[in-house]
């Protein structure tokens, strides 16, 4: 099995050299005619411009007011609690009324 592999590698070396003995240089299609440093600078500038545009749009959107909706009517069948929560009478993420210190 080693003999066929050796012949395959020897054939590859023979085709990789020119008649003068110099090794062929492999050229990739992605780097044909492009300078990598210029590409990096271009994309860095595009990134900074995108960050600037996003910051301006965020400031514009945050500076606008937002619509406040009226409170829903207090329907009697909403928020029925048969047993108090371990953390108090309100829901875990809601604080609607100020608790007095007399129950602590």
TrEMBL record:
It comes from the Eukaryota. GO terms for cellular component: mitochondrial inner membrane. It is found in: Mitochondrion inner membrane. One of its GO terms (molecular function) is enzyme regulator activity. One of its GO terms (biological process) is mitochondrial electron transport, cytochrome c to oxygen. Keywords: Membrane, Mitochondrion, Mitochondrion inner membrane, Transit peptide. SUPFAM superfamilies: Mitochondrial cytochrome c oxidase subunit VIa (SSF81411). Its main location: mitochondrion. PANTHER family: CYTOCHROME C OXIDASE POLYPEPTIDE VIA, CYTOCHROME C OXIDASE SUBUNIT. This is Cytochrome c oxidase subunit 6a, mitochondrial. It comes from Dichanthelium oligosanthes.
